[in-house]
Design brief:
Elements: H1 8-16, H2 20-26, H3 31-36, H4 39-47, E1 51-53, H5 58-65, H6 71-74, H7 78-86, E2 89-91, E3 125-129, E4 132-136, E5 142-145
Antiparallel strand pairs: 1-2, 3-4, 4-5
Helix pairs in contact: 1-2
């Protein structure tokens, strides 16, 4: 892992005093996050506080777009896109150094009952595996965090 932070995006903005928009704009590996995501969803992220964003890299978006699950992006299904992205926003600040080989289940901002029936919102599993932190969805999709999430975790 190149960073001790789970999400370069979520905490780099806080540490450096930059806005989330600036951090996203200055990181070419995350350019699809700002270009493919509808402005209304980005504004939700920009106003949220005390969160960790599992920011999908451009490669993660490419994998999604070239999969059956990518139909929501192609159809501009705002509700599905928002649900997918809210599943990648953790409530609270999470450092990679605090996650160990015992699984933890941080809550996400996904609480839309059309996409989750978990009281208090959907959760993801986080576990340290070697020098990496891996997140698992309820469908056991996984993504290893480096500086940006390598694959979107599907609902």
């Amino acid at each position: 892992m190149q960073s001790k932070l789970l999400s370069l995006v979520a905490l780099a903005a806080t540490v450096s005093g930059q806005s989330l928009t600036s951090v996203l704009g200055n990181n070419t590996e995350l350019s699809n996050l700002t270009s493919l995501v509808p402005p209304s969803i980005l504004s939700t992220l920009l106003t949220a506080q005390n969160i960790t964003i599992l920011a999908p890299s451009n490669a993660a978006f490419a994998k999604l777009i070239n999969s059956p699950a990518g139909a929501a992006l192609a159809a501009n299904d705002t509700a599905a896109i928002q649900a997918l992205l809210m599943y990648h926003v953790l409530n609270g600040t999470y450092y990679a150094s605090a996650i160990n080989s015992t699984p933890t289940f941080p809550p996400t901002m996904l609480s839309d009952t059309a996409y989750t029936n978990v009281t208090g919102g959907q959760r993801v599993e986080a576990i340290a595996q070697g020098n990496n932190v891996t997140f698992f969805s309820g469908l056991l999709q996984n993504s290893t965090v480096t500086q940006a999430v390598s694959r979107l975790i599907l609902l």
